[in-house]
């Protein structure tokens, strides 16, 4: 089962865990992305996320389908938050349940790495004295 | 030929708008659109990457645009 969500409200690790729960799963890996308080030593005030939602959901679905296909995942949940996030809040949660643990680790890493490359979501770091679109420039 | 541009992230800041009607001169491919935009807005050339989507899918440089088609500018993504 695949569960893709883009939400303007707080994400729930527990919800993702429950979504992928399965008696046939020997391992579940959950990646939790967290808003850090600094970037290269500079204090971050908050992060603003925006997304081209319909396409982002399509791209997230492609990732989840690849995870099912390549790692034999039983269930995959990918939840991403948009809007303004404070330090410590969760922009992303990815949960992958597989029969054996090794596949779950690999698949989860693939999912977050690919999400960062293909899913049309943009984050702006807001500092005390300005703001920057992350990864925009070389 | 007129197309509709939709912009997110830093592309929105560069165009100072999240959507605008845009006149494409000469060729009608995504590649041509990219050069025309970079010529008009030098900031696009400084980006790490610049991709375009039509119909909620990434399209390659040789994709031919149609009159009034909606093209979404995808600057470097940074989710997660």
Tell me the radius of gyration of chain B: 12 Å
Which CATH class of chain B is shown? Alpha Beta
What overall form of chain B do the CA principal axes indicate?
globular
Largest sheet of chain B: 5 strands, mixed
Which term fits the overall shape of chain A?
A: elongated
Work out the number of β strands of chain B: 5
Helix content of chain A: 25-40%
Order of helices and strands of chain A: EHEEEHEEEHEE
What is the strand arrangement across the widest sheet of chain B?
Answer: 2-1-5-3-4
The average pLDDT of chain B is 96
Helix run count of chain A = 3
CA-CA gap between termini of chain B: 37 Å
The domain count of chain A comes to 1
- Average pLDDT confidence of chain A is 97
Regarding quaternary structure, how should these chains be classified? heterodimer
Task: Indicate the low-confidence ranges of chain A by residue numbers.
Answer: none
CATH A-level architecture of chain A: Alpha-Beta Complex
Q: At the fourth CATH level, what is the homologous superfamily of chain A?
A: Molybdopterin biosynthesis MoaE subunit
Strand content of chain A: 35-45%
3D architecture notes:
The complex is a heterodimer of chains A (138) and B (80). Chain A is an alpha+beta fold and 138 residues long. Chain A has three helices and nine strands, in the order E-H-E-E-E-H-E-E-E-H-E-E. Chain A has one domain: Aldehyde Oxidoreductase, domain 3. Chain A has helices at 13-20, 53-71, 101-118, and strands at residues 2-7, 27-33, 38-39, 42-51, 75-81, 83-86, 92-98, 121-127, 130-133. In chain A, the strands form two sheets. In chain A, strands 3, 4, 6, 8 and 9 form a five-stranded antiparallel sheet that branches. Chain A has a four-stranded mixed sheet with strand order 1-5-7-2, sandwiched between helices. In chain A, strand 8 and strand 9 form a beta hairpin. The longest helix of chain A has 19 residues, at 53-71. The model of chain A has no long low-confidence stretch (mean pLDDT 97). By secondary structure, chain B is an alpha+beta fold. Chain B has one domain: Roll (Ubiquitin-like (UB roll)), CATH 3.10.20. In chain B, 22% of the residues lie in helices and 29% in strands. Chain B has two helices and five strands. Chain B has helices at residues 9-15, 30-40, and strands at residues 2-7, 19-23, 51-54, 57-59, 70-74. In chain B, strands 2-1-5-3-4 form a five-stranded mixed sheet. The longest helix of chain B has 11 residues, at 30-40. Chain B is globular and about 35 Å long. Chain B starts with a strand and ends in a 6-residue tail after the last strand. Classes of the chains: A alpha+beta (138), B alpha+beta (80). At the A-B interface, strand 4, helix 2, helix 3 and strand 8 of A face helix 1 of B.
């Amino acid at each position: 089962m695949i569960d893709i969500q883009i939400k303007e409200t707080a994400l729930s690790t527990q919800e993702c865990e429950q979504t992928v729960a399965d008696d046939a799963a020997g391992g579940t890996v959950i990646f939790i992305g967290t808003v850090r308080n600094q970037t290269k030593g500079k204090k971050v005030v908050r992060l603003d996320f925006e997304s081209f939602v319909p396409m982002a959901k399509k791209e997230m679905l492609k990732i989840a389908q690849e995870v099912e296909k390549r790692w034999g995942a039983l269930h995959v949940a990918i939840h991403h938050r948009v809007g303004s996030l404070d330090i410590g809040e969760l922009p992303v949660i990815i949960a992958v349940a597989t029969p054996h643990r090794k596949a779950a680790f690999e698949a989860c890493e693939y999912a977050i790495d690919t999400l960062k490359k293909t899913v049309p979501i943009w984050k702006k770091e807001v500092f005390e004295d300005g703001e920057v679109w992350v990864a925009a420039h070389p | 030929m007129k197309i509709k541009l939709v912009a997110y992230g830093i592309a929105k800041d560069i165009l100072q708008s999240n959507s605008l009607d845009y006149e494409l001169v000469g060729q009608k491919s995504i590649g041509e659109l990219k050069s025309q935009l970079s010529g008009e807005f030098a900031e696009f050339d400084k980006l790490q990457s610049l991709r375009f989507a039509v119909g909620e899918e990434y399209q390659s440089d040789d994709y031919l645009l149609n009159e009034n088609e909606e093209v979404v500018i995808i600057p470097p993504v940074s989710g997660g």
